[in-house]
Design brief:
The complex is a heterodimer.
Chain A: E1 3-12, E2 15-25, E3 30-34, H1 41-49, E4 56-61, E5 64-65, E6 76-79, H2 91-101, H3 106-119, H4 135-147, E7 153-157, H5 165-182, E8 185-190, H6 193-199, E9 202-207, E10 210-215, H7 217-222, H8 227-232, E11 237-239, E12 242-244, E13 250-252, E14 260-270, E15 273-280, E16 285-291, H9 292-298, E17 305-309, E18 314-315
Parallel strand pairs in A: 3-8, 3-9, 6-7, 7-8
Antiparallel strand pairs in A: 1-2, 1-4, 4-5, 9-10, 11-12, 12-18, 13-17, 14-15, 14-17, 15-16
Helix pairs in contact in A: 2-3, 2-4, 3-4
Chain B: H1 4-11, H2 17-65, H3 70-78, H4 80-113, H5 119-131, H6 134-145, H7 152-157, H8 166-176, H9 179-192, H10 195-202, H11 207-236, H12 239-245, H13 255-264, H14 268-300
The chains are: A alpha+beta, B mainly alpha.
Chain lengths: ~325, ~300
């Protein structure tokens, strides 16, 4: 195991940030810590990095107990949410920093920096200053800087949080490919379930300082362990204690006696996906997700009354 | 009746074409004139204030100094007591300013990054030299370090003289110029944040390396500004130094004390010349900072 976190607890005053948290991350894995803000995911990441000390429990990296070790000896690369660039240094000097504090020879540093700038596609920008870079470029510079010291594990705190939607999508895909290329054990923090699903191989869902469930994106989506995971990962309809996925709701072309009657309240076209807001005959509101083609075939229109077939709902015991 | 509706349609549009344009243009021009007048008034007041308060007196000093040509000025500069005062002032600045810079940076780090009891009180204490009159500072130093003061006996046993000698002047100067570096450094330190320092740490830098390579370069403009203010204050300090130095000609007379001395002895050329030298030293400090800032900032494009 590349990273083992065992029974870690952390309080800030009265606030319990982490409550007996344990995770294992395999060598070369790409893991997401997913949860709403205040769930403790960033604190956990900072504890792994050594930027925060746990009150209880231990952290093991590469088989070595580093719970009491300072950040600089842990061999972790950390990418900060706002990139934390060294503003007074050029891109080259930023990336070279880790090597230069280790007093590596100049020509070795030069070669390595050049290689890394190529890897993050910043060649030609070596002499720029951080103030002359875009958000996406700063992000990649921060990544190159963290990778320069060949860390055992790479930790990223909300790596795409501060970028606009398009750059974000590009960088996600790029991070995924970069990981396939260099295979460094990577853990990133995000509050965006879509981002976690798209990028990570393993997702750790956190809430209120605890881990709700751990597993592959598909596993979490198909077999959520509890209400929280079910409603945090993927869209959901809630009918009392029962949960159903909007895409599991079938809209029937004709009444066949097996379904329930429903009134179409609103039809929202989102490109390929069409969202149909319905009112069931007993007055409850739900929404169904259908494809553009299905919507066309059904000739959906607001005010229409049609028949829907609901899947067996999932119920979680409290 | 039936065509009244049509009439309103033909009448209703606002004056069209050139007429409308020129009307709008007039209004615009009037507004612009008013704005220009306002700007002019504000500028005149600001410049007038500056001229009365700053430019006129300084210009007057320069004028009076060079009124009778360069020869008397040269003589005044060459006077042994003037020379001594000049070098003494530089010596005091050269000791007090680095002391306060090192102390100021350390204290700023402690106040901004540290968590301990009594931080607020310490912050208040740092500002004390701003609040206390320099004369009081001088007197209190005499009370502590003078012959009859707390450490007086012990100090004279060791053969160390502080009051009425250079150490006392340095002490008084350092005291009155203490808060500048701290106060100028704290806000830039806060703005810098801790992210960059933590990044340096995860990259393997020791505390010392982080300070020299990340923290200090990050706060250097605040520090430089603080140093300039400290230098200016140290160069010009009169009250506190006047008391602790004993004003011994050719021994403990700094440049400001020398100006006062010449002035009281009706040697106006001597007084004005020394004053001009003092002013030029201060201006040189400002200019140096300006040049430094401009050069490095241009390169960094921040």
């Amino acid at each position: 195991m590349a990273i083992e976190v065992r029974n870690v607890g952390k309080r800030f005053g009265d606030f319990v940030a982490l409550d007996d948290v344990s995770i294992s991350v395999g060598d070369g894995a790409l893991t997401a810590l997913l949860g709403p803000s205040g769930s403790g995911k960033s604190t956990l990441l900072r504890i792994i990095a050594g930027l925060e000390a746990p009150d209880t429990g231990e952290v093991v990296i590469g088989g070595e107990d580093v719970t009491r070790a300072p950040a600089r000896t842990r061999g972790v690369g950390f990418v900060f949410q706002h990139y934390a660039p060294f503003k007074h240094m050029t891109v080259h000097d930023n990336v070279a920093f880790g090597l230069s504090v280790r007093r590596r020879p100049k020509d070795e540093i030069g070669t390595r920096v050049k290689e890394l700038l190529g890897l993050v596609r910043l060649d030609g920008l070596a002499e720029r200053y951080p103030s002359q870079l875009s958000g996406g470029q700063l992000q990649r510079m921060a990544l190159a800087r963290a990778l320069a010291v060949q860390p055992q594990v790479l930790l990223l705190d909300e790596p795409f949080g501060a970028l606009d939607a398009q750059v974000r999508a590009e960088l996600r895909e790029w991070l995924r490919r970069l990981h396939d290329e260099i295979h460094v054990t990577t853990v990133f923090v995000t509050h965006d379930q879509e981002e976690a699903m798209e990028v990570a191989e393993q997702i750790v869902v956190m809430n209120d300082g605890r881990i709700e469930q751990t597993g592959s994106p598909r596993h979490l989506y198909e077999s959520p362990a509890n209400e929280f995971v079910m409603s945090f990962i993927g869209p959901v309809n809630r009918l009392g204690d029962a949960f159903l996925r909007p895409h599991d709701i079938q809209i029937l072309p004709e009444a066949d006696g097996t379904g329930t009657e429903a009134l179409v309240v609103r039809v929202v076209h989102l490109g390929f996906e069409v969202r149909v807001e319905l009112k069931l005959h007993d007055g409850r509101d739900i929404w169904a997700q259908v494809t553009r083609e299905e919507a066309q075939q059904l000739e959906l229109s607001e005010g229409q009354i049609l028949t829907v077939r609901l899947p067996a709902p999932r119920v979680f015991s409290a | 009746m039936s065509n009244s509706g049509q009439n309103t349609v033909t009448i209703s549009p606002a004056p069209s074409g050139r007429l409308a344009q020129s009307a709008a243009g007039d209004a615009e021009r009037a507004a612009e004139r008013a704005a220009r007048a306002r700007r002019l008034t504000v500028r005149t007041i600001a410049l007038g204030y500056l001229a009365l308060l700053l430019l006129a007196p300084v210009a007057m000093i320069f004028y009076r100094t060079f009124e009778h040509g360069l020869a008397p000025v040269w003589d005044a500069i060459a006077a042994p007591n003037a020379q001594h005062a000049f070098w003494l002032s530089l010596e005091v600045v050269a000791i007090a300013v680095p002391l306060n810079t090192a102390f100021g940076i350390g204290m700023a780090l402690l106040l901004e990054r540290g968590h301990f009891r009594g931080k607020g009180l310490l912050g208040l204490l740092i500002d004390l030299p701003f609040a206390i009159s320099p004369v009081v500072v001088g007197l209190s130093l005499v009370l502590v370090y003078g012959k009859t003061g707390w450490f007086g006996d012990w100090l004279s046993e060791q053969g160390i003289q502080i009051i009425f000698s250079v150490p006392g002047i340095v002490l008084a100067t350092a005291f009155v110029s203490l808060p500048f570096v701290v106060r100028e450094t704290i806000p830039v330190l806060r703005e810098l944040g801790t992210d960059a320092e933590q990044a340096a740490e995860t990259l393997g830098a020791s505390g010392w390396q982080t300070f020299w390579r990340v923290t200090l370069p990050g706060i250097r403009w605040g520090v430089v500004y603080g140093v300039v203010l400290t230098t200016a204050r140290a160069l010009g300090e009169f009250g506190a130094v006047s008391i602790v130095s004993g004003r011994i000609e050719g021994q403990t007379q700094t440049l400001p004390l020398y100006v006062q001395d010449r002035f009281e002895n009706f040697d106006s050329t001597g007084a004005y010349t020394a004053a001009v030298v003092l002013a030029l030293l201060a201006m040189a400090t400002l200019l140096l900072m300006n040049l430094l800032t401009r050069r490095t900032r241009g390169r960094m494009a921040t």
